[in-house]
Amino acid sequence: MLYWVAICLSILIGSSHGQFVGDGGFGSTPTIYTFSDGSSTSTGDIELNEQTRTAFGRNDIVSVVVGSGVTSLGRDAFAWVSSLTNIVISAGIINIGEGALAGTAITSINIPSTVTNIGVSAFQACSGLTNVVIPNSVTNIDRYAFLDCTNLNTVTVGNGVTTIGPDAFSNCSNLTKASFLGNAPISGGDWNNCPATVYRLWVAT
Questions:
Q1: Would strands 117-118 and 131-134 be described as parallel, antiparallel, or unpaired?
Q2: What is the SS3 assignment for 61-91?
Q3: Residue 100 has pLDDT above 50, yes or no
Q4: Is the pTM above the cut of 0.90?
Q5: Residues 6 or more apart from 71 whose CB is under 8 A from it?
Q6: Most-buried pick from 22, 107, 187, 197 (CB within 10 A)?
């Protein structure tokens, strides 16, 4: 069940920006992967996907620093890599694709203000996440994007979002607060088994 609260703010609430790698220039820095044994490797790929990950022949990645030349976390880039606890996404990423981080053990995520799309099941079953801020650059949050993020407590949706897919936040059973900075559509079907109070925020003029 969703509860609605409308709040008028006298100051502009901006998007949250995390720690980014490089300046977003093409090929500026490589993507660095660290494994459970402490070893690491790097690649210069501009899209990370299931193929680039499995090329290592191992599935014990614990940390990733995404290179500044990368523009997309593609389909299943790190899907169900349960050892992955930390990822730093560079400014320049446009797309977080289908299943990109589903089932990982990440406990936080800083989505850069260059991202426009969060794909199907992108963060599904990331049970370690407790807080998510979706920047104003994002226009689409696809279906199941945060499904089964059972420890997610708060989410802030930027003012650029125009589409939220079915069950995007369903089964987030500990989500208590959802703050909308814009006019994104809100449907109860996107928030099944979710006790959040929805706050629609706007700026006073």
A1: unpaired
A2: EEEEECCCCCCEECCCCCCCCCCCCEEECCC
A3: yes
A4: no
A5: 46, 47, 92, 93, 94, 95
A6: 22
Token readout for 174 is 């500990």
Q: Tokens 């996440």 identify what position? A: 129
Rounded Cα distance, 147 and 158, in Å: 19
Instruction: Give the per-residue pLDDT at 202.
Output: 59
Chain mean position to CA 132: 7
Judged by DSSP in three states, 117 sits in strand
Mapped onto helix, strand or coil, the DSSP state of residue 95 is: strand
Q: What is the DSSP string of 30-63?
A: -EEEEETTS-EEEE--SEE-HHHHHTTS---EEE
Is the Cβ–Cβ distance between 129 and 109 less than 8 Å? yes
* The pLDDT of residue 205: 45
